[in-house]
């Protein structure tokens, strides 16, 4: 769906064609359509607002089916929140974003979405003040919970703020309170380099997407809120220039559903068992770090090469698009490269940013999400099809001291590439 070949706004004819197809499958009692749409939402995250719009249009004529889809999504979200697997955590983050997008499309009650977001932040705040053993080692989990909430706001912040202003203000205060009380604001152990190679070296001043990532993202979201929640990289569901005014009036005719109850975990999943003796703090720290690894990566290029003077939130959104695409299509290199080139829905030249994110992910500590060979093969294929002005050489010059380290290469060579 959409117009990936031009990276432009929504294609109205494609939406109408998809709507007709979905309505036909629903009338034929094809239950697979629900699973298909939810898979598209998770695997094609740059187009999530488009799929939320499609679900909203279906809701006008098929509210019962849409209610079943919401129940399924909420059940999947609850299961993913309580899972110790990082892949399920990606699914939980994207499903939470879907629920927020559906509130913007008049499918879900905004108050219910805000209540869920507040509950997740409240659980993280409670974890930082509880008297549970080793709770100070839970920060990767609590950071991830708050990150899921903060990362969902740019997609529906305008609609949620308009519908629930007091709840949004309360949520902002809770996030600020969490950032103040968490014990670590910068992960020193995840610094990729020990010394600067020049004054103001940006690679030296980051922690591989560790604790500082959440602070930077929240600052970018607050800045975004001050300019009316406009994000160039996100298709606006109700923006007349992108979707046409007819969608706003059609979505308003649909039934608004209550948000199903989603149990919010009070502690991280996958902790070592307390029997027969209480686990060692190092075991707890390792288990939490493995289940909830840092999301961002290493920044290697100066902002003028990657950000183009755009607001900070655009950088975080584009980075999410790239990382999500790598995770969804890591088993199909050809499809992964095609989507990185043409399906990210970014209305600007992002070749330098793509280069930095790929190298930053490959070198991220404590370990990359994918085998190093996966990143290398994608980089090689991208160099063949993208503009030759890509800043690979600059990123590689910073990355090479780590990549050529024999100990690192020996360890990573043992990891198979799917």
Detail the poorly predicted runs: 3-9, 401-418
CATH topology of the largest domain: the name is Serine Threonine Protein Phosphatase 5, Tetratricopeptide repeat
Portion of residues in beta strands equals under 5%
Tell me roughly what share of residues is in helical segments: 55-70%
Tell me the span between the first and last alpha carbons.
27 Å
Provide the structure class: mainly alpha
CATH class of the largest domain: Mainly Alpha
Global geometry: globular
Number of strands: 0
Query: How many domains is the backbone divided into?
Result: 3
Nearest-integer average pLDDT? 85
Integer-rounded radius of gyration = 21 Å
| CATH level-two architecture of the largest domain | Alpha Horseshoe
Number of helices: 19
Order of helices and strands: HHHHHHHHHHHHHHHHHHH
User: Which sheet architecture does the biggest sheet show?
Assistant: none
SSE topology:
Elements: H1 12-27, H2 32-43, H3 48-61, H4 63-81, H5 86-104, H6 110-129, H7 139-163, H8 165-181, H9 211-226, H10 240-243, H11 245-251, H12 281-291, H13 303-306, H14 312-328, H15 333-342, H16 351-362, H17 372-385, H18 392-403, H19 406-413
Helix pairs in contact: 1-3, 3-4, 3-5, 4-5, 5-7, 6-7, 6-8, 7-8, 7-9, 14-16, 15-17, 16-17, 16-18
Domain MIF4G: 14-183
Protein name: Armadillo-type protein
Region (Disordered): 259-278
